[in-house]
UniProtKB/TrEMBL annotation:
InterPro entries linked: ARM-like (IPR011989), ARM-type_fold (IPR016024)
Top-rank taxon: Eukaryota
Family matches, as SUPFAM superfamilies: ARM repeat
Name of the protein in its database record: Uncharacterized protein
Organism from which the protein derives: Aphanomyces astaci (Crayfish plague agent)
Length: 954
């Protein structure tokens, strides 16, 4: 009999025996079906090993009918396979005598059925009972034989001999995919597993055998094609997956054939397996199979992604057993090595949302102690989430969550400070350091948490410094330590201590030294980045720099053999060092002493142009980062007024316009921010100089060019800078000028975007303050020139801006702090260095806008709105507080100072009239009391004040 085939109803003309699945035969419905009783509506299902229909040609007995297609219908479950015995095969196999004897036997069987149809148990003859017992014993014997073959195959020489027996392998494979009992099928598959696990050569020879069951194809191809057979039984599925894994492992080249051999039914079945909750064995073996395939042939990841396996395994991360989680995470790491696969996973919000409880559970398991296999994979997965160049924003969110919601920082810190550096603990220390520096990368809160997690006796800085000194011979380990120092320096206290204990000096020596053991580019870059982080966050680290450090950095950057990564980090060193004014002057003095220095404007512009060209040609991120730090250095140098003058005067004053043009054409938000810093710094100085030579409209362009800044609104950190520049530009415009921004519809996008940003929760107080100042400048010019903005700055729009800002204003400001407010508190120099006075500036500008709104024609209708009345009440309260503070200060000054009273009497300050007006307004009792007290002090000490008061009829 031929091997099993997929069932189709046309086979009902022959003898059909079910191999897999179920075949159902029933009466066809007809118009006379109502005449039959329910019992007469016959229907029968046939399972594995049962004969579906006995054909009429098998016997001459007329009682055996042919299959009538008009009376019966046939249905079968999916993937049903059967053995078929056709009439042609019957005639070709048996002689006429044998067929006659068979016909008689079948007639006798029919007679027995007819006679004993009411007593079916009597049909079970002694011969049939003996056959059933013999059949069960035969199956058990088959299992024992297969087990013996499998155990013998554990000896490599015997395995080679068995594999060379092609007929034996054909029999075993035939039993593995037969309709026999599950115990026999499982034993056959396990025997094949043992045959191919001893030696790669044996497995390769096993795959080369042409098998009769698969029409000459190999074992692996046949297994893959026979999915309809082994998918029906979960235990058999699990064993077949183990066998396939062994074949992919010991014959690596066949793994690359997966895209051609695995089809859509395979991927659909595997995805179904992954979503079944109580299928741990299949989950484990399928995970191991896919891991093996990806390790042997990484290129097949695209086929797995196209089949959707990455989605199935990503959801298995949240639902799998704890013992399987380690392997599933390893598989996810392999998937994420393929960029398209990683992007598709990272774009799924549900994946990130469901991952958080798993991260908490992983962190809890890590507290139990170090387990090499588990911890390495866990921490590698954390590394993937915490620090990747693919999605910095998402990585930042993971650092926030893991640092705040898990105990991972405490666990890693505890291991680093408690485990001694030794060969047996080196890997444990390194994986902990690798994860901790990613967790604290550019995250000040996590870095502070590390300091808090340390014991009082043990200092993390001392441990890290000791590791740095003792690992010069292990470059990879020392680079990890340097990265940890860089991340922990985001905590200003740690950064200051780095310079205080002398570690900063060691790092600079490592970065700038030319000794053979420090020539490694990665090591020197790591040392420079650690120093740069300390310089960025600590004023103590910056003040500890010497002229020798600056000269060494300049020499390193100027070296013709230096690599781009070192150039980038050296430029970053100079940029952060120049945050300190004294270092800034030191660096600029170095440029003056050496006209050809890299800090000169000509060299800097050449560097920027070269970076743009190199990045356009290679798309290497290093060149763009070098350009960013170069512009950052220029921004820091321009904060010095003398340096800013040289910058503006260079090459007939072309640089301000060049910086402005670059800002409006760059694609990188970080580079745009640095360019805007330069532009706004120059604009502030030009506004201070009040020199016709340095008018903003002459240096940066007229209205059409200036309004191109509207395209930069929305970039990170750029809103306040753009609005401040527009504010300064407007202030320098003459009273009547067709080029001003007031009254022009082109400024509409600026108004709209700024107004929308006022309503957002993430808008900073500085951005709101700059917009209020910019809008106030507009209104002053509108009132002065009688301009109409066509609804952009009418009373209703202004009131809307006021109410939007009022929702975020600070209502508990201490006016006593205003005594130390600098004169330029609204300038970029003030709020970029110390933004503590921005809330006061916001309140002041808000009150100015309320006053301007009251001067508009539509103000009567605005008084009916609740939000505007609340804003008005707030401004009134603030004004009363300010007046009270002023009156208290004046009363303290004039109470015992007759000289000041005489000076006020002779001057034209008009303080008496102001005090009388305050008393007459009678708005607040405290204000009236203070005004009367000041008035009494003035009148008591000055006759002129007394005479004037009588004249005013006080």
């Amino acid at each position: 009999m031929a091997s099993a085939r997929a069932f189709c109803p046309d086979m009902m003309t022959g003898l059909v025996v079910v191999c897999r699945g179920t075949v159902t035969v029933s009466y066809k419905p007809s118009v006379f079906s109502f005449q039959r009783t329910k019992a007469a509506q016959w229907k029968r299902s046939f399972g594995r090993g049962e004969v579906v229909w006995c054909p009429s040609w098998l016997s001459t007995d007329s009682r055996i009918e042919r299959f009538d297609w008009s009376r019966f219908k046939v249905d079968a479950t999916v993937h049903t396979t059967v053995f078929e015995w056709t009439q042609a095969l019957h005639d070709a196999t048996f002689s006429s005598e044998t067929m006659s004897r068979l016909s008689v036997d079948i007639s006798a069987l029919v007679d027995s059925i007819v006679v004993h149809k009411r007593r079916p148990r009597e049909l079970w003859s002694h011969e049939m009972t003996s056959f059933a017992v013999e059949e069960a014993q035969l199956r058990l014997l088959q299992v024992h034989c297969l087990n013996v073959i499998g155990h013998v195959a554990q000896v490599p020489d015997m395995a080679k001999m068995l594999v060379n027996d092609t007929s034996l392998i054909n029999v075993v494979v035939g039993m593995a995919l037969s309709s026999l009992e599950d115990i026999v099928v499982m034993a056959a598959v396990q025997t094949l597993q043992r045959l191919c696990t001893q030696d790669a050569g044996i497995a390769r020879h096993l795959l080369a055998i042409p098998l009769d069951l698969f029409q000459g194809h190999s074992l692996l191809d046949g297994l893959v094609d026979a999915i309809d057979i082994w998918r029906m039984s979960p235990p058999l599925t699990s064993e077949v997956l183990v066998l396939m894994r062994h074949l992919y492992k010991f014959v690596p080249e066949v793994a690359s054939s997966i895209p051609m051999t695995w089809t859509e039914p395979h991927y659909q079945f595997f995805q179904q397996c992954l979503v079944q909750p109580d299928n741990n064995l299949i989950h484990r073996n399928l995970t191991a199979l896919v891991v093996e395939a990806l390790m042997q042939a990484p290129s097949v990841v695209s086929a797995f992604t196209a089949g959707g396996l990455h989605w199935g395994f990503s959801r298995l991360v949240h639902s799998c057993d704890q013992s399987l989680l380690c392997d599933v995470l390893h598989l996810m790491l392999l998937f994420c090595q393929d960029e398209p696969t990683r992007r598709s996973l990272w774009a799924d919000r549900t994946y990130h949302r469901d991952l958080k409880p798993t991260l908490c559970a992983m962190s809890t398991q890590l507290e139990d102690g170090f387990m090499m296999e588990r911890d390495v994979k866990y921490l590698d997965f954390f590394n993937l989430l915490l620090h990747g160049h693919h999605d910095p924003g998402r990585c930042r969110q993971y650092r926030d969550y893991v640092g705040a919601k898990t105990t991972l920082i405490k666990t890693l810190t505890g291991r680093i400070v408690s485990v001694e550096l030794s060969p047996e603990h080196r890997l444990e220390l390194q994986v902990c350091i690798e994860c901790l520096w990613r967790l604290c990368f550019e995250h000040q809160a996590n870095a502070k948490h590390v300091m808090i997690s340390c014991d009082q006796v043990t200092d993390i800085l001392a441990v890290v410094a000791n590791l740095f000194e003792r690992t010069h011979h292990d470059q990879a380990f020392q680079i990890s330590v340097l990265h940890l120092i860089r991340s922990l320096c985001t905590d200003p206290e740690f950064a200051t201590n780095v310079s205080a204990v002398g570690l900063q000096k060691q790092l600079t020596e490592c970065a700038f030294s030319s000794r053979p053991d420090t020539k490694s580019t990665m090591r020197r870059c790591g040392a420079l980045q650690a120093v740069n982080a300390a310089l960025e966050y600590s004023s103590g680290a910056r003040s500890a720099l010497t002229s020798g450090d600056v000269s060494a950095c300049l020499a390193l950057y100027s070296s013709s053999s230096v690599e781009p990564q070192l150039q980038r980090d050296a430029m970053q060193f100079l940029r952060f060092a120049c945050i300190d004014p004294s270092v800034r002057r030191m660096v600029w003095q170095t440029q003056n002493d050496h006209p050809g220095s890299i800090i000169g404007w000509e060299s800097t512009l050449q560097t920027i142009a070269q970076c743009q060209t190199n990045y356009a040609n290679t798309r290497n991120q290093v060149h763009q980062e070098l350009m960013l730090h170069t512009l950052g250095l220029m921004a820091e140098l321009c904060l010095d007024e003398a340096t800013a003058r040289t910058f503006c005067a260079y090459e007939d004053a072309v640089l301000p316009r060049v910086m402005f043009e670059m800002a409006t054409t760059q694609a990188s938000g970080a580079i745009v921010f640095q360019l805007l810093r330069i532009v706004v710094t120059l604009a502030e100085y030009m506004h201070q100089w009040a020199d016709p030579q340095w008018l903003l409209c002459e240096q940066f362009g007229t209205q059409p060019q200036i309004l191109r800044l509207a395209t930069l609104l929305g970039e990170k950190g750029c809103n306040a800078l753009v609005l401040r520049f527009l504010w300064l530009w407007e202030q320098q415009q003459p009273p009547v000028d067709s080029n001003n921004l007031v009254g022009d519809k082109a400024s509409h996008p600026i108004h709209v975007y700024a107004a929308e940003s006022l309503c957002k929760l993430d808008t900073t107080a500085t951005e709101r303050t700059m917009f209020l100042g910019y809008l106030g400048c507009h209104l002053k010019r509108m009132v002065r020139n009688g301009c109409d903005l066509g609804g952009l700055s009418d009373a209703s729009s202004v009131a809307g801006h006021i109410c939007a800002c009022f929702r975020h204003v600070v209502d508990c400001l201490s006016l006593q702090d205003l005594g130390s407010v600098p004169d330029n508190w609204l300038s970029y120099f003030s709020w970029s260095q110390d933004p503590q006075y921005i809330p006061y500036a916001q309140v002041w500008l808000l009150m100015e806008l309320v006053v301007m709104a009251f001067k508009m024609d539509e103000v009567e209708s605005l008084q009916l709105t609740r939000s505007f009345r609340q804003a008005l009440e707030f401004c009134t309260r603030q004004a009363i507080c300010i007046i009270e503070s002023i009156l208290s200060s004046v009363h303290a000054l004039v109470g015992n100072n007759s000289t000041l009273c005489l000076w006020l009497a002779k001057s034209k300050v008009g303080i008496l009239q102001w005090l009388v007006d305050l008393v007459n307004v009678n708005t607040d009792a405290t204000v009236e009391t203070l005004a009367l007290a000041v008035l009494h002090a003035l009148v008591a000490q000055s006759y002129r004040f007394a005479a004037n008061a009588i004249g005013l009829d006080v």
